[in-house]
Amino acid sequence: MSSYKDKKVITIGIVSELTGLSERQIRYYEDRKLIFPERTKKGRRKYSFSDVERLMEIANKREEGVQTFEIKKQLQRQDNEKQIREKMLKGQINAHFRIRK
């Protein structure tokens, strides 16, 4: 079950208001593969609260002078670490409750 934070329901205009970033900046970060909105059937972008948090993190790093390719590497590293932690936790839960696949 996914968290409400991961549901892609927010339009780019609202994301822009929440983050203070222009729609152009948000699209640029998508082009740089830093965020991954979903698209509606009509091609409109939809973002999640997790995307908004990530955009704020990106904006803060950019203000500190960090280049987008470095941010991408950092975000990929964080995502990998998160996946590893989730797998480990699942394994611990499965072992504790003796759940077999």
TrEMBL record:
SUPFAM superfamilies: Putative DNA-binding domain. PROSITE patterns: HTH_MERR_2 (PS50937). It comes from the Bacteria. This is MerR family DNA-binding transcriptional regulator. Residues 9-77 form the HTH merR-type domain. It comes from Heyndrickxia camelliae. Keywords: DNA-binding, Repressor, Transcription, Transcription regulation. One of its GO terms (molecular function) is DNA-binding transcription factor activity. PANTHER family: HTH-TYPE TRANSCRIPTIONAL REGULATOR TNRA, REDOX-CYCLING DRUG-SENSING TRANSCRIPTIONAL ACTIVATOR SOXR.
